[in-house]
Amino acid sequence: MNSPSGDTAAPDCGHWIGDERRHCRSGTDVHRYVIGYRCPEHTPARLAGRPEPQPGPGWPVHRTEDPS
Ligand SMILES: [Zn+2]
Question: How many angstroms separate the alpha carbon of residue 37 from the centre of ligand 1?
Answer without folding.
Answer: 9
